[in-house]
Amino acid sequence: MRIPCPNCGERGLEEFSYRGDATVTRPTSIEPSSESAWLDYVYLRDNPYGPHWEFWHHISGCRAWFRLKRDTVTHKVLAVALAAGVDGEDHRS
Amino acid sequence: MTRQKFRLPVGGLIDRLQPIEFRFDGKRFEGYEGDTLASALLANGVRLVGRSFKYHRPRGIFTSGSEEPNALVELREGARREPNTRATVTELFEGLSACSQNRWPSLRFDWRAVNGLISALLPAGFYYKTFMWPASFWEKVYEPQIRRAAGLGRASSRADPDHYEASWHHCDLLVIGAGPAGLMAARAAARSGARVLIADEQARFGGTLLDEHVVIDGVTGVEWARACIEELKTSDNVTLLPRTTVFGHYDHNVLGAVERVNDHLAEPPPGQPRQRLWHIIARQVVLASGAMERGLSFTNNDRPGVMLASAVRSYVNRYAVAPGESAIVFANNDSGVRTVRDLKSVGLTVRALVDVRSGVDSAVRAELEDTGTQVFDNSVVLRAHGTTQLRGARIAPRGGGQGVDLDCDLLCLSGGHDPRIHLTSHTGVKPVFDNTLGCFLAGDLGESVSVVGGASGRFDMVTALRTGHDAGHEAALRCGFALAIEQPIPEVTGESAESASEALWQIAGATEKAFVDLQNDVTVDDLALAVREGFDSVELMKRYTTLGMATDQGKTSNVTGLAILGEQTQRAMADVGTTTFRPPYTPVAIGAFAGDSRGRHFQPVRYSPLHEWAVDLGAEFLEVGLWYRSRYFPKAGEDMAVASEREVLATRRSVGVCDVSTLGKIDIQGPDAGAFLNLLYSNGFKTLQVGKARYGLMLREDGILYDDGTASRLTADRYLMTTTTHNAAGVLAHMEFYHQCVWPGLDVQFCSVTEQWAGLAVAGPQSRELLSRVLPQISLDNDAFPYMAAGEFTFQGMALRLFRISFSGELGYEINVPAGYARAFADHLMEVGEAFGITPYGSEALDVMRIEKGHVTAKELNGQTTPHDLGLGRMVSQKKDYIGRFLSGRPGMIDANRQRIVGLVPERAGARLFAGAHLVGPGKSAIAKNDEGFVTSVTYSPALGHWIGLALVNGGEERIGEKMRAIEGLRGMEADVELVSPLFLDPEGVRLRD
Questions:
Q1: Are B439 and B417 contacting, i.e. CB atoms less than 8 angstroms apart?
Q2: For the domain bounded by A2-82, which CATH number is listed?
């Protein structure tokens, strides 16, 4: 596979490490009432058939974390954005 | 030496001036430059070349290409001996030595051919039916016996003496196959300026142009190919890779190929690789891999002398070899007539053409019959005669009847053609059966791959040239070569229009074995049996009968097998489905994948900047991940236990020095650096003062311990973090994730400085005195530089960082100096330390001292423990958010009954303990139900004079004082132990602080 790093352009899969689902958001509350949000965040993942936002790390390159929208069926790369964001926008859909 | 009795007097693409001597089964033969092993064997009349896998039936050469199921030999000798090598693709070289396989004592008289006589006992699935009982017999009796009986060739058991390398290549267009279609595609794209890579598995480009009589643009196919190749060779933008098999097509047009750089020589020239693995990244791919011919299934269709018609033409036309003297041709398509003509053109006798179809053209019939060839239309071959050599065939009308027997020593088969579309399904695109063409075609491949020529199911030369050109032109346009111009398609003469073939998958009335899969000995009856027994889905049938599961992956048998399954179950081909083609297309040597990553280059090696220092002091090393750490420093006659005991005692009595450079070091800077650390560690870092170090715990978000280490505040906005050696890279990635993905608002930067700084631990009661002499400008007394102090200093113009931290439990310091100065500084330290009897100690002594002190390492931070489990519950803040904060507070994570850390001492003085031992109550038996925990770390304690250990046991500290049994089943050891506090030495930490 070829992965387009937002900083370095298209590079071989072997330069990257994969973390998984990028649609989850770490809860901000540590109150007991937030328990289900925390369990969701840490343990529950969807396994979509089709487009999916995921976290990738250019670990043997610029070391940027980014979100990549990949079709899990065809491996087609549909969109990519630095995780930290350059425009302050949330790129997840 | 046998002369080449079956070499035709003229013709062929062989060099008759270059004779080559080779040996087969020890006998010497001669061939010519340009031969394959198969063509050279045939030229010498050797038609029996192996025994089959299961029934040990005599087998000959079936094809002329990489799909060969029969002619598998052991090639070369000694360390280079390679089994299951296809004679049909092995280029002949001087001194080549090959052996037939799977026979004993000799090829002609094979003892295990008795398998053929008792074959009624060996039907499909016989393993499953026969060898079920008793269960214990499988491993000891049945499997070794079956393996011996059914073994293919023997691999060398010696190390591979050859070298393999890897290469990466980016191109606009990759053309797979250099036959007429591939050459046209490459030429069209190359003329437009695109960067083209063209690969072909054969040594010589040209594909079927080398095998068949054809005239293109007024010259022979061979001449036309030669000119085309010459043009490609002189184009700067074209790379030609002969002897290269593209074996895998992966996502995003990444392809794997293996180039047999020197397999055509006895051994690679010095400094050259045997093979080269190519990683190809192509914007466009044109698959011009051609088609394979299919056989036909009738009784004894495996006799040596039964060959594919296209292979026979190749041997006659390309290699000038007569595979037999008297032939019968049996076909369901026009390949039959073409074969008859080619055989006759070199003067061979063709006794009969047997055509499955009715109504052979009268002009053709007249032409053949006038030259002595009987024509049987609407007929089939019912059976082949002969055993180790074909003697004849029985021909009968399709409707039935006795038939007639004709003598022959060559039977040429054509049951149709299958496009070589294996690569198109590697990325998950299923092939589609085309009822008109009677074969599978590639599915929808999108815009980056096109399939041309024979691989697209079009088997005529005109279409090959045109589709090749169009695909090459289109690929160039897609890559943005707007100047691409269409070029004239070469004109083909002498090719008559093909009439349709007629599918025929099995010949009714087979009385004995009619093979579908020659390599795995799967017969038509086996397939029928599988259906009768309910294994009627394609995936089940494959596994039950082993159809297509041999090293040829069923190239000549899969489609026939599927069709027979369809007939047996009254399903159309489209409904039968297919099994999945997976890489590699043909077998690839493991060495080619390993490349240089073998032996000591298997993985990179990391040396500490103090490695040479330790070497000079006589250290023995331990591999820790990629690192080599100094493990102990033996003096004459010392083993590891003695040396480390001496090192520990010397350190505890005076002063020792240890290389700790491998610990991860991360430099963290920025206004929010402190806030970031406070989120990373479970204990508080907000209050850490400049000039101070603090021990910290990192959790995973699920509350389990991840790593431990220290962070020192060097200035208001700058910290130095240390991690364990093992997790150094992981912690950095973990921090980058949280910084970039979770808290991008934090103004903090950090990077690894592990390799930039060397680390030395100096420990022992004399360490302060020693360092005061080494670093006289730094005040080291307890008030000026107390326990957990940290600071940056300059020493003779060199930056130096000093930390008063200790893993050994002694008064101790860690010193960081720039890696390049490490050796000089360490030498200076040793020189000054001589007065104190300074002793270098290794990781083994360090481990002894940390166990005596109850400090935890990866043995205890094992991915299942919490801070609470390891007695570090006080380091879990309740005041702040941090990674793991919420879920570490779950009731199950802080349950007092969890397996928690305790110390262990043996009840009997002198008894030793074993790590990994399980703990059960006194008098309890060693069964899982009684298991209450396990021993994580043990050592002999020089300070205490007996063995000690750390363990995780249900209830932990609440059980202190209890007695238990520690049982190590692997070594059959056990000891009675008492649970004690894990702090064996100096529990108040006086030594650290004073």
A1: yes
A2: 3.30.2270.10
**Gap between the Cα atoms of B217 and B246, Å rounded:** 30
One-character DSSP codes across B780-847: -STTTS-TTBEEEEEETTEEEEEE---SSSSSEEEEEEEGGGHHHHHHHHHHHHGGGT-EE--HHHHH
Burial of B208 (0-12, 13-18, 19+ CB in 10 A): buried
Report the CATH number that the domain containing residue B622 is assigned in CATH.
3.30.1360.120
DSSP character at residue B203: S
**DSSP conformation class of B110:** B
Count A/B contacts: CB-CB distance under 8 Å.
56
When divided into structural domains, chain B yields a total of 7
**B283 CB within 8 Å of a chain A CB:** no
CB contact at 8 A, B70 and B43: no
Alpha carbon separation from B840 to A76, B199, B630, B667, B846 (Å, rounded)? 56, 59, 10, 28, 11
Mean pLDDT in residue range B698-719? 97
* B779-818 residues touching A, CB cutoff 8 A: none
| pLDDT tens, position by position, B966-983 | 999 999 999 999 999 999
Cβ-contact B858, B950 below 8 angstroms: no
HSE, CB side, 13 Å, CA atoms: give it for residue B615: 8
Asked if A83 and B741 come within 8 Å (Cβ–Cβ), the reply is yes
Q: Which positions in chain A have a beta carbon within 8 angstroms of at least one beta carbon in chain B?
A: 1-2, 12-13, 17, 19, 22, 26-28, 30, 34-35, 38-39, 41-43, 55, 57, 59, 63-65, 75, 82-85
User: Does an H or E element contain B678, and which?
Assistant: helix B673-680
Partners of B353 in the beta sheet? B329, B375
Question: pLDDT tens for residues B482-535?
Answer: 776 778 899 998 777 677 888 888 888 777 899 999 999 999 999 999 999 999
Query: What does the pLDDT look like over B26-40, one tens digit per residue?
Result: 999 999 999 999 999
Give CA B204 to chain center in angstroms.
29
For residue B876, list chain A residues with Cβ-Cβ distance below 8 A. Answer: none
> Residues B616-667: pLDDT tens digits?
999 999 999 899 999 999 999 999 999 999 999 999 999 999 999 999 999 9
Name the β-bridge partners of B624: B627
Pair B31, B12: CB distance under 8 Å: no
CB B527 within 8 A of CB B564: yes
Look at residue B884 and tell me if it is in a domain. Answer: no
Selecting from A26, A59, A83 the residue whose C-beta is nearest the C-beta of B733 gives A59
CA A38 to chain centroid: 18
In a domain, B869, yes or no: no
Q: What is the mean pLDDT of residues B349-374?
A: 94
Strand, helix or coil at B417? strand
Domain of B432, CATH number, reads 3.50.50.60
Same domain, B689 and B718: yes
In angstroms, the separation between the Cα of residue B2 and the nearest Cα of chain A is: 53
pLDDT of B871 above 80: yes
Do residue B325 and residue B268 come from a single domain? no
Residue closest to B867 by CA, chosen among B832, B898, B836, B824: B898
Chain B residue at shortest CA distance from A66: B741
Q: Provide the pairing of β-strand B664-669 with B963-968.
A: unpaired
Mutation target for A interface from B449, B741, B890: give the one with most A CBs within 10 A: B741
Same domain flag for B79 and B50: yes
In a domain, B467, yes or no: yes
**Spatial separation of the C-alpha atoms in residues B934 and B900, rounded to whole Å:** 10
The string of DSSP codes covering B500-551 is PP----B-TT--S--EEETTTTEEHHHHHHHHHTT--SHHHHHHHH-TT-ST
Residue B746, chain A, CB below 8 Å: the answer is no
Contact A30 B881 (CB under 8 A): yes
